[in-house]
């Protein structure tokens, strides 16, 4: 009879002890899979949510900002000097090494214009890019269009709309230097608490004409989808292709939340490793009990010619079966647990990480093999002569 057949028949004969040994491995494997799957889902969810925070890299000339303050109220800031970014240089940002992680590059042009004898900050934007960058803006009316509809369109912040009595459909006249422009208010931005509350937003080309800054932008707001590379590294890459500009990473919020998740994952992983060690001891004790029950059988096998390698191989095969079966069931159980636990614990939806399956089965097999070492030593110490005398 072949050795593997002997092992399988022996395992099937001791179903209850086999189930206990497999259960120990299942619990440890399931704990590890549940931890990894749950916190991987949390990380992915956090990065997906971070895309709604707006830009995480600000690119601008290395100039000094001058705050605009009326009384005790700040109405934004202006950059001094004529240090603008040539609009023709903007495409260079897509030549960085991690260009695939660039989700949105939104150019902006800031300036000051007069409306009803009051100075206001105007902001020229690339409309489609701004829509992607600021999806949380609630607009009363509609977004401006830069498709050349025939009449100039603007949106106004709530801090300007209320005192000037502006609403969708209102007409305004903007003046900057010797340039004057009539425009229609198509939307009012509900208060966001940001600087846009006190700004007038125009299409970029319209703002460039009004401010006499054709072909120039003040800054670039960049949203980087970068869960596999650090945002500061992308900032350095941008500064490399756009010399003379400053690319400032604004990823502190995401990094802080990732640090919290990392600490939670480390703690949970430590518990999982302890569970794994306990499962190894459980499996070893079960196999030692099995060897004690089979002392006569092992002694007879050695007496009729079975050598040490065959005895050890028999026990290792038993550990291999326990590891494969326990690891496979543990992967399925851990994935199911994370599917239920992830929405409750980290408000994320988990999905199977199939690459974990061979890793978990491999670790479980190693546990089974290690747990076989002590029983193997016990089996090799059995004296066939003493066993035969006791029969």
Q: Helices, strands, pairings?
A:
Layout: H1 3-13, H2 15-50, E1 57-61, E2 65-70, E3 73-79, E4 85-86, E5 102-115, E6 118-125, H3 127-133, E7 139-141, E8 152-157, H4 158-164, E9 171-176, E10 179-189, E11 199-203, H5 204-210, E12 216-217, E13 219-224, H6 231-241, E14 245-249, H7 252-293, H8 295-303, H9 308-345, H10 356-380, H11 384-390
Parallel strand pairs: 6-11, 8-10
Antiparallel strand pairs: 1-13, 1-14, 2-3, 4-12, 5-6, 5-13, 7-10, 8-11, 9-10
Helix pairs in contact: 1-9, 2-7, 2-9, 2-10, 7-10, 8-11, 9-10
Describe this protein's structure.
With 391 residues, the protein is an alpha+beta fold. Helices cover 51% and strands 22% of the residues. The protein is built from eleven helices and 14 strands. Strands 1, 5, 6, 7, 8, 9, 10, 11, 13 and 14 form a ten-stranded mixed sheet that branches. A hairpin with a 2-residue loop joins strand 9 (171-176) and strand 10. The chain is rod-shaped, with a radius of gyration of 34 Å. The two termini are 23 Å apart. The model has no long low-confidence stretch (mean pLDDT 80).
Radius of gyration: 34 Å
SSE pattern: HHEEEEEEHEEHEEEHEEHEHHHHH
N- to C-terminal distance: 23 Å
Morphology: rod-shaped
Which percent range fits the helix content? 40-55%
Tally of DSSP β-strands:
14
pLDDT under 50 segments (min length 5)?
none
* Alpha plus pi helix count: 11
> Structural class from helices and strands?
alpha+beta
Strand content: 15-25%
Largest sheet: 10 strands, mixed
Q: How much is the average pLDDT?
A: 80
